[in-house]
Amino acid sequence: MIEVSNIEKSFDGTPVLKGISCVFETGKCNLLLGGSGTGKSVLLQCIVGLMKPDIGSITFDGTIYTNSKVDIRQEIRRKIGMLFQGSALFDSMTVAQNVEFPLQMLTPEMTPEERRDRVEFCLKRVGLENAGNKMPAEISGGMKKRVGIARAIAPQCTYLFCDEPNSGLDPATSIKIDQLIHEITHEYDITTVIVTHDMNSVIEIGEHIIFLHQGKKLWDGTKEEILNATVPELRDFIFSSSLVRAAKRIDDETEGGIAAFAEEGDAGAGI
Amino acid sequence: MVTRTESFRVLWNRTMEEAMLIGVDSIVIVSIVSAFIGAVTCVQIAYNLTNPLIPQSTIGFMVREMTILELAPTITSIVLAGKVGSSIAGGLGTMRITEQVSALEVMGINSTSYLVLPRIIAALLMFPLLVILAMMLSMVGGFLAGTLTGVMTSQDYIEGIRTDFIPYNILFALIKAVVFAFLVSGISAFKGYYTTGGALEVGAASTGAVTNSIIAILLADFALAALLL
Questions:
Q1: Which SUPFAM superfamilies match (chain A) (predicted)?
Q2: Domain range spanning residue A131?
Q3: Is the pLDDT of residue B68 over 50?
Q4: Of A104, A233, A195, A230, nearest to B13 (Cα)?
Q5: Which chain B residue shows the shortest CA-CA distance from A160?
Q6: Own/partner pairs for B5-10, CB < 8 Å, 24+ apart?
Q7: Do residue A152 and residue A163 come from a single domain?
Q8: How far apart are CA B29 and CA B83, in angstroms?
Q9: Are B146 and B58 in contact, with CB atoms under 8 Å apart?
Q10: Is residue A72 part of a domain?
Q11: Residue B1 lies in a domain
């Protein structure tokens, strides 16, 4: 479980995060939802330690991360896996070497055979068992995301962070990536935090959603609750999509049909 | 960068990788440049030495002094500033803007010790070796140019390069090589590592790395000559 307490962050005097507090629960897909420029990615970077918040604290399973000693921060960082928006694969390494890299660096006690087995397992888990020898430049955007996920889970991470995992992908591939993240979260009981502004992801895998607007947390809840939320900024955001407007109309007409729609999303995630 | 490094094995492997890129991959260009510098130096000195009272062996002597003291370390380092400096800045800059540096940090890896320190150590090791190669090839280039064009005999040239040899000059050239290596790798790594923006900024970082490195080499060249000679 990750607890974020009263985080504030400014750039050149312009406040970007304004006292955000929230909890990301273990074994759930926690979504940070909001429009562009609302501070989602900045909050994510503060949580993983790529940025230092001005005020506030972040706790990983009871261990304070912000302002703690380097050793403690390193220990927590080694439990973190992250999928970047552009995948951030090392372009001088093959797919298999990318997945093996954190194992080489973080688990020197593993033998080369054990590492190779783990790489094969992770690549198979994301459906890329035949792409190990390819270079990142030779694979598609969706495959890069899957390699990024394989690299993140290779050292058996406890916390998985995904920065807009669907950006630049077609809807079908986006759903596959969402489902993969959902499955991995439940399979390994990890704490997953996903930054997104994609309502399809919300309906597909949003087990705990936190809505940010202009640097403030305005709402949190589940995907079943989000369509009936009364916060005007959230309603403006979610109903800007015609797909969600249609879903809401079905919900109203069928008295709870959206719940079935959401359950269908859950069922799809298990495929 | 040096207080929280990765394990010695990782640092060694990374340094050897970078040494291959900085050193071995630069052998051809350094060889070509230094051989021609030696050849041109020999021919131009011969052109200017018209006094019959000055022995022909002086040409070999002057080629040796000029290449060891100045041309081999300085010109080689300027060439390497262009080749290695732009490579370091471009590589690190690209890694920065594509979030590869952030990926390392998130994994708990100290990105400066993993990416920057091996490059600096590799440059410190490789620059002196390349300068030694450049010294030798410059004198060989001078020998070939002098003898093949007929401006002097091989005996005169060899006599000249063996006259009044001062071993300290070699040490001075190697000190210069080490200082220039640190300047080129340090400036280029700084420019690349702190790149922000996109592809345009990576190009600007590479250009800045080369120009700043060359200026730093020339300033350091003067300072070292004033201090150590």
A1: P-loop containing nucleoside triphosphate hydrolases
A2: 92-157
A3: yes
A4: A104
A5: B106
A6: B5/B110, B5/B113, B5/B117, B6/A105, B6/B109, B6/B110, B6/B113, B6/B114, B7/A108, B9/A108, B10/A105, B10/B114
A7: no
A8: 9
A9: no
A10: yes
A11: no
Same domain (yes/no): A133, A212: no
What is the C-alpha to C-alpha distance for residues A24 and A28, in angstroms, rounded to an integer?
8
Q: Is A43 within a domain?
A: yes
Q: Do A74 and B108 touch (CB under 8 A)?
A: yes
Q: Cβ of B99 and A86 within 8 Å? A: yes
The closest of A157, A187, A147 to A80, measured between CA atoms, is: A157
pLDDT digits (tens, 9 = 90+) for A102-158: 998 888 888 999 999 999 999 998 888 889 999 999 999 889 999 999 999 898 889
Residue B2 domain-assigned (yes or no) = no
**Which one-letter DSSP state was computed for residue A110?**
S
Q: Contact at 8 Å (CB) between B104 and B114?
A: yes
Structure token pair of residue B46:
């011969």
Q: What is the pLDDT of residues B10-25, one digit of tens each?
A: 899 999 999 999 999 9
Measured in angstroms, the CA of A12 and the nearest CA of chain B are apart by: 16
Domain contains A86? no
Name the minimum distance, in Å, from the CA of A265 to any CA of chain B. Answer: 31
CA-closest candidate to residue A175, choices A251, A240, A266: A266
Prediction pTM value:
0.86
Q: Are residues A177 and A258 in the same domain?
A: yes
Give me the number of domains chain A comprises.
Answer: 2
Which ipTM did the prediction report? 0.83
3-state secondary structure of A49: coil
Choose the final residue of a domain: A109, A139, A157.
A157
A54-113 pLDDT tens trace: 999 999 998 898 888 888 888 888 889 999 988 899 999 999 999 999 998 888 888 999
In a domain, B59, yes or no: yes
Residues A171 and A66 in one domain: yes
Pick the residue of A75, A84, A100, A156 with the most B CBs within 10 A to test the interface with B by mutation. A84
Token readout for B52 is 């019959």
Q: Which H, E and C letters describe A182-224, residue by residue?
A: HHHHHHHCCEEEEEECCHHHHHHHCCEEEEEECCEEEEEECHH
Is residue A265 within 8 Å of residue A204, measured between CB atoms?
A: yes
CA–CA separation, A107 and A75 (whole Å): 12
